[in-house]
Amino acid sequence: MANRVTISCLGPRPLAIEAGTPAQEATDLMIRHWRDQLEKVLPDRPDLIVLPEACDRPDPLRFPLEEQLPYFRARGNQVRDSLADVAKRHRCYIAYPALTEAADGGWLNEMQLIDREGRVVGTYRKNYPTPDESGRRSVRSGKDAPLFECDFGRVAAAICFDLNFDELRLHYAALKPDLIVFPSMYHGGLMQGYWAYSCRAHFAGAVAGGPCTIVTPLGTTAASSTNYYPFVTATVNLDCAVLHIDGNDDLFPAIKRKYGREVTIREPGYLGSVLLASESDRFRAEEIVAEFGLERIDDYFDRTRNSRMIEVEAEK
């Protein structure tokens, strides 16, 4: 059945707080900042709000590194708890990315996922900090890349520089998430669409100071923020399947004749693939796949690999 999820991504530039501002005063300013920012998307009643990387770190151009650690200690969980209150009152998930202090005095660049009850249901730590982060800033590398089980589907996370590493992308591709959230200070360009298509997942990127984007499993942009407004909200349907045209194309007219607007088949051009989605409350996309004997794209590619392997082995 249709699984429509409304996602908001926010990407304002880091809040400018002057050097020398007392840590608690800076914390109060940050809480007020994010309350104001959230008001821009809450009227759309999103199921999930994604904030950008290190969302509550003051702009380092004005707030120097030596003042950040005292600020983070004073901040503690205050910003997170404020966001948790919003999540509970508005019945939404919030992806809260922040820098926190590790037990050994190092830093953690992580994202905590807050659920509709205001509870933290899981944490993802950036697996691939930049050399500057791991060196000068002593940011520790994350060791795990879990999926978060939400009431609308399975969610994976990547933070900023992570998007450059095939090891993480292939890990997620094997796990088959429904959605990848991407808090960042770096847009990633073509990598956003590549990750979405490779993982057969929707992708929600919240980029500080850059376009925020919601991408389909075909790698196409469903919605984007603009230079005027650093936030975007869109509703996507997670009840979908990525299919290759080969072997399936002849069946698409029969599907449309039988189900009409209850099934959408989107074809982006040049890719040779389509996104089939159930828009009905009566059946799921996987039921259409089974009813018409459609072949999912990964099964099609596996069949190609196996055919080649048999041929190679026969020639030995």
UniProtKB/TrEMBL annotation:
It comes from the Bacteria. Keywords: Hydrolase. SUPFAM superfamilies: Carbon-nitrogen hydrolase. Residues 12-238 form the CN hydrolase domain. InterPro entries: Aliph_Amidase/BUP, C-N_Hydrolase, C-N_Hydrolase_sf. One of its GO terms (molecular function) is hydrolase activity, acting on carbon-nitrogen (but not peptide) bonds, in linear amides. The keyword Hydrolase applies. Pfam families: CN_hydrolase (PF00795). Coiled coil: none annotated. This is Carbon-nitrogen hydrolase family protein.
